[in-house]
Amino acid sequence: MSTTTLSGARGALPSFRPIAFVIGLLLLGLAGAMLICALVDAGQANPDWRVFMISAAITGFIGGASVLSARSRERFQLELRQAFLLTASSWLAMSVFAALPFLFLGQGLDLADAVFEAVSGLTTTGSTIIVGLDELPPGILLWRSLLQWIGGIGIIAMAIVILPFLRVGGMQLFHTESSDRSDKIAGHPGLLAAYIGTTYVLLSLACTAAYWYFGMTFFDAVNHAMTTVSTGGYSTHDASFAYFRSDGLHWTGVVFMAAGAMPFAMYVRLAQGARPDGLVGSQARLLAILLLAVSVVMALWHSATGKMPFGEALLTTAFNVTSIVTTTGYVSADYTLWGPLAGVVFLVLTVVGGCTGSTSGAIKIFRFQVLWLLSVNQINRLIRPHEVTRVTLSGRPVTDEVGASVLAFLCLFLAAIVAGTVMLSAFGLDLDTSLSAAVTALANVGPGIGPIVGPAGNFSPLPDGAKWILSGAMLLGRLELFTILVLFTPRFWRW
User: Fold this and answer.
1) How many CB atoms lie within 10 A of CB 210?
2) What are the beta bridge partners of residue 4?
């Protein structure tokens, strides 16, 4: 049986066989998920089970053909550029085939709609173009939730295993060197995957049980648990979490959205009886402090202005602040109606994100930590230009390479927002819609501001061209910008 490792070596034109083999395996897994939805619809005597059977047949055939044609007795060893190609092409292939059930559903969705919904699901963005969720068959509702749950575990694996190896956006700060101090990553990736996967499943089961206990139906509990832990935000109801009136359900959502945005490596370390790594722990503490501080301050502001009692205000602000910061995208209230200040605060919170090694998107906590340290160091150098200082974050040196990588990521992130806003404006969208849609797509959050893409809106009125742009932006943001942009440089293809 062939295995796959990563290597920093460079050589002649590489074989694309390992890439096709891995993508084939992923498509086979996706086909299996489609069969689960087919069984759910068949169990409810819903004719849409045929949609999933056809989609599974197509996906399984392509995936099986890729595996059979690319299999080899030799050990696969991915080079750096192959890893870039595999990361980008696997997410793209999964998105295309995941769109098949939406395309065949017969709900009037065209190709742009189907791809948008699939990309939003797999990237755990949560923006949707589907209206009438309460009336949809159970199979397609479960498919949306499964996409986010699958995407969530894929995001964790990518952040822990792939991105530090690719050294993009400062992720090399989390690089785990093997015993021989080479450029290879985790010595036992299978064991690491087992730990992370088990943690992910246990969190999902605990969330399901809590939702069920506080009053959700079992079907709603399963779906919302998958989209909560994955910080995805797809709901089975058009009103999102506002459909549920139980305080217990809303506090459960707050707890598990925050849990999904914490570093999963922290859970593994705690389960092993060890203290979390300093860098991991500092992120988790800063995220918890941020969520608590913003929620309490906004709740005090609400109660001081007489809009609602403090207890109610705390629950409402805590839920929506946690949802946006963790890039989940659930809404329990239309926060754009709270006034201009609230709208600006939530737009800023959209780009924050959770911890690296979690399911959340956006800029992420550790990059703000690095940016703060670099800013303080620069100010100190202005005062004492001849003093040599060593910048560290939780005991790890912030090298010039890491600092430059983080700054480059932030610049590209802002540039992508500007470019996205301009392109969306070209389709006749107003500034609020264009800007917030670009931000929420790149940050993988879901709701923006304004009547169309805001917390009470839906992305279906957007023109197809805008949906294609946003689909690309969601993938660009999820893959940390560089992973896709590097493929468009001529030098990348000069082997």
Assistant:
1) 20
2) 76
* pLDDT, tens digit, 9 for 90 and up, residues 279-288: 888 999 999 9
Tokens of 284: 């988790």
Per-residue model confidence as pLDDT tens digits over 84-118: 999 999 999 999 999 999 999 877 799 999 999 99
Q: By CB neighbour count within 10 A (0-12 exposed, 13-18 middle, 19+ buried), where does 235 fall?
A: buried
Q: Report the alpha-carbon distance of residue 458 to residue 475 in Å, rounded.
A: 20
Burial classification of residue 415, based on how many CB atoms lie within 10 Å of its CB (0-12 exposed, 13-18 middle, 19 or more buried): exposed
Predicted model pTM? 0.92
Sequence-separated (6 or more) residues with CB below 8 Å from residue 368: 352
**Cα distance between residue 330 and residue 324, in whole Å:** 8
Buried b / exposed e across 179-202, counting CB within 10 Å, b at 16+? eeeeebbbeebeebbebbeebbee
Closest CA to 257 of 318, 333, 342, 188: 318
Which residue type occupies 459?
A: F
Q: Tell me if 5 sits within 8 A of 184, measured CB to CB.
A: yes
Map residue 129 onto helix, strand or coil. Answer: coil
